Amino acid sequence: MIMKAKAPKIAEGIYFVGTLDWDRREYHGYTLHGTSYNAFLVFSEDKCVLIDNVYPGEVYSAQMWGRIKDAFEDQGKEMKIDYIIQNHVEKDHSGALSEIHAKFPDAPIYCTPIAKPGLIKHYPDLADAEFVTVETGDTLTVGKKTFAFLDAKMLHWPDSMFTFLTDDGILFSNDAFGQHLCKVERLDSEVPEEEVMEAAQKFYANLLTPLTPLLLKKLNEVVELGLLEKIKTIAPSHGQIWTNPMKIIEAYQNWATGVCQKEQATLIYDTMHFSTQYMAHAIAEGLISQGVDVKMHFLKEDERSECVKDILESKAVLLGVPTLFNKVFPSIADVLLYTEELEFSRTGIKRLGATFGSYGWGGNGPKWLNGKMADAGFEMVDNLEINYVPNDDDLEKCYDLGVKIAKEMKEM
Description:
- The radius of gyration is 24 Å and the shape is elongated.
- It has helices at residues 61-75, 91-94, 97-103, 115-122, 193-207, 212-224, 245-257, 275-289, 304-312, 331-342, 365-375, 392-410, and strands at 9-11, 14-16, 19-21, 26-27, 30-31, 35-37, 40-44, 47-51, 83-85, 109-111, 131-133, 139-142, 145-151, 161-165, 170-174, 233-236, 264-269, 293-298, 316-320, 323-324, 327-328, 352-359, 379-387.
- A seven-stranded mixed beta sheet has the order 1-2-7-8-9-10-11, covered by helices on one side.
- The longest helix has 19 residues, at 392-410.
- It is an alpha/beta fold.
- The protein is built from twelve helices and 23 strands.
- Helix 5 crosses helix 7 and helix 6 packs across helix 7 (245-257).
- The protein folds into two domains: 9-257, Metallo-beta-lactamase, Chain A, CATH 3.60.15; 265-410, 3-Layer(aba) Sandwich (Rossmann fold).
């Protein structure tokens, strides 16, 4: 099936042929309001190269095929893909590969050595396809255009790579530098900067935080190869295309090194009968009194990916939870496990931590949580537990805890 769709031209002879997924609400464990799966056609003389693709099936690949058809019509050429570049195995970027191979069986597939068996495992019908495995330094010249390949292992899968279109200065970065946004516009300059950067921050926090050491190494490699000054555009596999590449490159460097940290604390809490909620609000007032910005996340309403986005730029994280069965109220466990898996400790960036909460006939919930946060790499400052409903004196202790955290933040 081919859906009639327009292929936006992003440069001379280069078209966006991906899919706009208006309906996606959850992805990789966090919430969003739609996304895009970016794929690109590059024309050079009488040849055509397809970079990445989309999910299979009528909803997704039909839109891709419609854009491919439109791009060829715009070029006044018969539809024929001569080369396929597959930067990543994951299905949102490779799902239509079987359809493409069936239509253009003579087109070789360029990918990393690790990607080849992964693609065949996903799509057994590709076993007879011609694969060309490439590593950093390898190139493909098609007509007057040269594609240079850069291994990007674990950014964010072992098979990942970047493709750099040298003469045009376009880096096709797959999942790196992406954002989960679904917009009619394709360029970052066409939407509000704050919206794009916030989406990029959420993408980084939820996908790339545990890969920070590898990311810094790859950024240094890009500099050493002399590519940084040659990159004019970054075309990731999700969201907007960066026409000002240094904006997102600098943001990645800042997130990876902690330069982005603000006088900001993230409070994440849940409550059974409002007591822990009272405590959270009182702690927030103590922080605010010292000029600290506070990001509040109430787990009755908020979800983990938004919490993590704010943790990325915070100097302190406070978790509040009632005690239940001598442990913790279960909603906090989801956030805790997710935060542990993101391994903030691997970044080497100092973040303060504290826990608080109320208890009835037995305590220990916040204390247990305190130990878990320490294990996750937070530098724990305090733990505050209140029996039943906090009174005025208890709320003053909460306020004082906020003041204490704020003062320690300012000494970092």
